[in-house]
Amino acid sequence: MRKLRYFLIFLGFFLLSPVSAKQSPKSEIPTSYRVVKGDSWFGIARKFKISAETLAKLNGRTTTENLYERELLRIPKGNEKISVSSPESLIKEKPSYPLERKERVVKKFSELTYDPHKGIQFQRGTSSLVRASLPGKVVHVDYMDGYENFVVLEHQNGLYTVYGNLERIQVTEGQEVKSKDRLGILSKDKGLYFQVNKQKQSLNPERILEGGI
C-alpha cells in the first residue's frame, strides 16, 4: 500500500494528473496514533491537519528526533491547544544548491498548458554530486523512463523535492538527511532534473533557490 501511495504521488509530480480526494464522512479525531513503517512527523501531522511541531511538542519531542515503528503518539483533541511560536513552524533555512557548482538551466519551469514543465533541467556540466537542498526524509527511491533513477525527499510544511537523472543513488527510503547531504551521482549524459512541490502544487525551483521558501 505504501508503495502504491507514493507511486500515485509521483504520477502527480511527473505526469501532472489532477488527483481528486474522496470526501470522507465527518468523524471524531482520534486521540492517539500508532506509528507505522515509513511515517514521518510531517506526514502524520498532515493526516490530522496540525503542524508537525505541535504534534512533536505534545509528545515531548522535536521534529529532529526519529520516530519508532509501533510507537504510540498523542494527537491533540479539537479543543486542545499547544503553543508553538510561528517561526518554528516555518522553514528558516534557505535551500542549498542541489549540485556542487552552479550549472546553467537548459529547460525552465513552465505552467503553460501547451508546454508544461514542473521542474527545471540543469545542463550536464562538471558537477556530478547531487545533494539534498533541504533537510528532510527520503520517502521514495525509484526508476522512471525519462527521469532515470530519482529520489524524492519530504520536508516540513508539505514540501517535497525531486532529484532525477541519477546514475547511482546513495540513500535509502526512510533515511533522514541534512541540507547538502549526498543523495547520489548524476548520469554521465544528462543534467539534473530538480522539482519542488508544496503538496500538489509545483513551485518554481529557480525562485526557491534564489529567494528561499
UniProtKB/TrEMBL annotation:
Database matches in PROSITE patterns: LYSM
Keywords: Signal
Keyword Signal recorded: yes
LysM domain: residues covered: 31-75
Cleavable signal peptide: 1-21
Keyword hit for Membrane: no
An MF annotation (GO) of this entry: metalloendopeptidase activity
Matching NCBIfam families: LIC_10271_M23 (NF047755)
Protein name per Swiss-Prot or TrEMBL: LysM peptidoglycan-binding domain-containing protein
